[in-house]
Amino acid sequence: MEDDYVGTMTIMEIEPGDLTAGEILDALDNGQRIVVRLEMLGGVHEVTLRYDGGTYYCDTPTTLHKHGDPDEMRTCIRNMGYGREE
Question: Containing H/E element for 75?
């Protein structure tokens, strides 16, 4: 896990399973962006998770997913395997 400071926002880089879904949501709610580094299809890909105060975003290499509430985001984090079991 690594933190980089960008302006007033911290970018946290994690591997899948470093944090629970709850810990990821707490970090997002506190203004952090989280970059999840995934190995898939023979390469390493990054997914950026962020929250703008009203909408949660999962920005993948091919799609931008939007979630309207924490429960939707928690389900996405679990389904995609970004967080470990709580």
Answer: helix 70-80
